Amino acid sequence: xxxxxQVAIIGxxxxxxxxxxxxxxxxxxxxxxxxxxxxxxxxxxxxxxxxQGTVGxxxxxxCGRRMHREGLIHHGIELSLRGQRHRIDFNDLVGKSVMxxxxxxxxxxxxxxxxxxxxxxxxxxxxxxxSGYDGTQPIVSYLKDxxxxxxxxxxxxxxxxxxxxxxxxxxxxxxxxxxxxYPFGWxxxxxxxxxxxxxxxxxxxxxxxxxxxxxSPTRSRYYIQCDASERPGHWPDDRFxxxxxxxxxxxxxxxxxxxxxxxxxxAPLRSFVAGPMRFGRLFLAGDxxxxxxPTGAKGLNLAASDVHYLAEGxxxxxxxxSDAGLNAYSARALxxxxxxxxxxxxxxxxxxxxxxxxxxGERIQLAELEYLVGSRAAATALAENxxxxxx
Length: 391
Ligand code: APR
Ligand code: PHB
Known about the structure:
With 391 residues, the chain is α/β, with parallel strands linked by helices. The protein has helices spanning 14-25, 38-42, 52-60, 65-70, 90-94, 103-116, 165-168, 237-247, 250-255, 299-320, 324-351, 358-374, 376-387; strands at residues 2-4, 7-10, 30-33, 49-50, 72-74, 76-81, 84-89, 98-100, 121-122, 126-131, 139-144, 147-152, 155-158, 176-191, 201-204, 210-216, 219-227, 261-275, 278-279, 282-284, 290-291.
């Protein structure tokens, strides 16, 4: 069965959903094709720090009410360095803040808004295959309930994440890939316990990195650096809490509330960029084109900024016939992507334990940390990047 729309969006993650809402607001039809169920997509626990630009886009999409009601405004973060805490005051340094609100909640709000206006999402769409985007009549074919379907469109937005089909449908010769895989992972635990602090604490410790984050005043999210080969089953809750407490400064360690984990997972750390982000009438956005290590809290925010540039280009195409935005999309998006890649790599290099750094490398890391907590200029640079560079 052949259907038609203006923009076919592959992937119902935050990138695909946010793009879908912004286009609908501008009167542009779109269909989202998602290989999993709604519940599966919402079952993934992901980070939750939103830059002001991302908050603005979610508002523009008309999906910000619960975010503003339940989200936590943070005016700074703390760095715990070798047992001492140092606050980076965003308000004082750059006059801005961030919003702590889980990516799962953002995804849920966008899905509810889309369902609320009856906009089409095909969940459990299998064998999704984009084609013809080097011509003028792209098609996305897929299987649904065993029946073959074809979706004709003007443009395809590949918002299907790192393992999605969109980037993999592009000939390797047309892609340039940049990658750094870090020799460690993050073991994350979600627990319904009071957060340790009202702001995030990023920890550099001789035993490895740790992060104290939260989802609400009663739900905490903690991470510790672990070997890349680790398995969640190796970490019973007690062992996790014990190891986390060992990496915290004494005051924080004493205040740490512990309890049973409601979710535990291990995430590998990698920096990845594939360019360009446009192939004819196929546009890649979000994790489909780039991955950042989570240390800079940039993953979701980069997906949002890609969507900002892509929506602008598509809306101008349909409103005024101008393709200037679409033609500039890849360069504009990649320019911001690389700055966030640099910041995320820098935060990762600064705060993690590298087994191959050697004595000189360790001293350099320490000197960088001491410079950072002693220099307003250095702290301002961190704050400026953390709250989000302009679009
Ligand atoms: N066909 C249809 N859907 C697919 C396919 C496919 N072949 N492959 C993947 N998908 C779907 C996935 O099931 C997922 O729901 O595409 C969606 C991609 O969503 P995300 O991986 O969340 O990617 P994105 O929307 O770009 O969001 C980036 O997610 O991983 C975090 O840190 C990252 O915060 C960042 C955000
Ligand atoms: C999270 O809350 O899960 C989180 C916050 C900040 C990060 C990474 C993850 O840098």
